[in-house]
Amino acid sequence: MAYKVPFVNAREHYRRYKTEFDHAIIDTLSRGDLIMRQQLRDFEERLAAFVGVKHAVGVGSGYHALHLSLVAAGIRPGDEVITVAHTFVATISAIVHCQATPVLVDVRDDYNMDVDAFERAITARTRAVVPVHLNGRVAEMGRIMEIARAHRLVVVEDAAQSLGATFDGRQAGSFGLTGCFSFYPFKILGCFGDGGAVTTNDPEVARAVRLLRYNGEDRDTGEYHYHGYTALLDNVQAAVLDRKLQHLPEWIAHRRDVARRYSEGLTGVGDLRLPDYPDDRYADVYQNYVVRTRQRNSFREFLEENGVETLVHWPKPVWEHRALGLGGCRWPETEAICREVVSLPMSAETTDDDVAATVEIARQFFS
Ligand SMILES: Cc1ncc(COP(=O)(O)O)c(C=O)c1O
Description:
Bound molecules: pyridoxal-5'-phosphate
Low-confidence stretches: none
Structural class: alpha/beta
Distance between the termini: 26 Å
Strand order of the largest sheet: 1-9-8-5-4-2-3
Radius of gyration: 20 Å
Oligomer: single chain
Mean pLDDT: 98
Number of strands: 12
């Protein structure tokens, strides 16, 4: 179906920046720079500066950023790692693939970790916590870091959805031992395939992730230090990301503007709950603009019938996916969120007309 208002618009994105993207790709290929070359180093340096940390290491995906972070942090079979139940499954899979035990806790109404629930979940076997900064909003990192310090826990931030978001003036991905980013095409900073990065101030962790991403080999000496992985961010993607990073501040400003317009148009409409939280410590980047209503399914159907494309992140709690073996918890906020949320169109290409049309159709539904 051709939507009047698409959720994102990849074709328009490419059209707007074609000259820059084509140049980055052709220049990289013309130089024969495919992997582990200058474009990657340039991007890593600029990403680290953007996040405000000493090191950034490009990897094959957000999943790999999480997994390699946990391996580099020394997470072992039998360790417990606390994270949220309401997240993309990759957060949890990264823990499972270390043969550690994921301990899932509930979230608050801003979709991020319930910090009291995190504290209650700590046991003698807890080694790490993975707070997820969902939808472009940082989790409450002040308290999370305090609790983690008190219990000597490793903090690996899942910042896949929140590059550029801040808490108390600090960037997502700059609080913990590592920050993990995804450059999946529809992320705030997306490449043309899979990509990710680990940010850290710890030189040993940066070195470990660099080795792990390329089969454990130190390319200078030929020595293998780990049974590693093949999880590189290739140079063509890095060159494109490096170009895109320069546009990121304007894209974030645009997303904030779109969010403001949605909020102006939808405040007080039906039972809609909007992602407006009066707390100056947070500056959100709106990877997703998520609204809640008890009539989610019929609301979503109405938007779709009227040409507005929406997404639901996610319709079913992870513990209900039997094959994942994550039974044993059943958290009320996560369950309610899965029943009630829908994400409205949001991207750097979303226009004023897109927002106006979406607001108009949403209002019609509730009138
Ligand atoms: C919260 C979260 N964590 C992890 C990931 C995994 O990133 P990737 O798809 O690049 O592996 C994603 C991507 O959708 C995500 O949204």
